[in-house]
Amino acid sequence: MKRSHFLRNTVLSLSATLVLAACGGTQEATTTSEDAASGPWLVGTEPAFPPFESQSDSGELVGFDIELIQAIGEQAGVDVEFESLPFDGLIPALQAGTIEAAISGMTITKERSETVDFSRPYFRAGLAIAVDSEDSETTSLENLEGKTIAVQIGTTGAEMAGSIKDAKVTTFDSAPLALQELANGNADAVINDAPATLDAIATGNIPDIKVVGELLTEEFYGIAMPKDSPNREILNAALNELLENGTYDTIYEKWFGTAPVGTLPETAF
Ligand code: ARG
After folding, report:
1. What are phi and psi of 106, to 5 degrees?
2. Which of 34, 169, 246, 257 has the maximal Cβ count within 10 Å?
3. Atom of ligand 1 nearest to the CA of 155
4. Which of 212, 232, 264 is the last residue of a domain?
5. Best mutation site among 54, 107, 110, 153 for ligand 1, i.e. most ligand atoms within 8 A of its Cβ?
6. pLDDT digits over 147-189, tens only?
């Protein structure tokens, strides 16, 4: 081979390599941004559950869950939009694929995990009994046998109430409505998530009721997604980042007035 040919061939193959490398680079970048930008995410929530989700006077969604999912979206580079739905309509909407996720103080349960996937736990909660502030007799589940118990439909509190012998369970579309029923003297007790009931008492939203006894359960909230959602890993990675970089703590302190106690487990069970 003549020297000039050798040089020319080398230059040709070199530039071919460069072109290929450039293509490879572009392709990779496209794939990555497509993975991350599979938004916007339409996120379902039942917004009558302060301090997790509620509507401000101007109708805007506010609360711990709302800010957390917005921060997750920001971290993941995905726009987040909200759809208000009844609590017992969230899982059907996920199954029908009309929403990408649901954040609604939703407890990760074995039963729900059969039909939807959850993010890693993002909040530790538990059920509590609320009674009239004058009630000095009710201190535990045993005292609720044969009593009238108000609950929000489709919740873990409703399930717990349903397991009490001879109890008459009355269901409401929201937790505040169930608590109001108790305040009105039409129910003997409410079984609801402790943080939500305590908030209703602390803000004065529901007067003349109190929480009694120990927490009935330990429950972990998760963000629900359709089964095998491609967003699950992206969402979990963003949530983990917020837990590590202090953003989670900042949002927590804003809504609960204290730093979170202890660390969250990586899985609910
Ligand atoms: N943690 C309970 C559950 O998952 C109650 C959640 C109610 N949430 C709401 N936004 N109303 O059943």
Report:
1. -85, 125
2. 169
3. 12
4. 212
5. 107
6. 999 999 999 999 999 999 999 999 999 999 999 999 999 999 9
Against a cut of 0.70, is the pTM above it? yes
In this structure, what token pair is assigned to residue 226?
């359709």
pLDDT in tens, 30-83: 334 444 447 899 999 999 999 999 999 999 999 999 999 999 999 999 999 999
Share of the chain above pLDDT 90, in %: 86
Do 94 and 160 lie in a common domain? no
Per-residue pLDDT of 2-13, as tens digits, reads: 444 444 444 444
Query: What is residue 125's three-state secondary structure?
Result: strand
Please say if the pLDDT value at position 20 is more than 70: no
| Residue 182, domain extent | 127-212
* Neighbour count for residue 134 (Cβ, 10 Å): 8
Whether 4 is covered by a domain: the verdict is no
**CA-closest residue to ligand 1 atom 7:** 105
User: What CATH code is carried by the domain that includes residue 79?
Assistant: 3.40.190.10
Residue 25 confidence (pLDDT): 40
Atom of ligand 1 nearest to the CA of 156: 12
Check pocket membership of 175 for ligand 1, CB cut-off 6 A. yes
Which residues are registered as beta bridge partners of 150?
170, 190
Residues 22 and 148 in one domain: no
Q: In this structure, is the dihedral angle defined by the CA atoms of residues 102, 108, 114 and 119, taken in order, positive or negative?
A: positive
Q: Does 95 share its domain with 159?
A: no
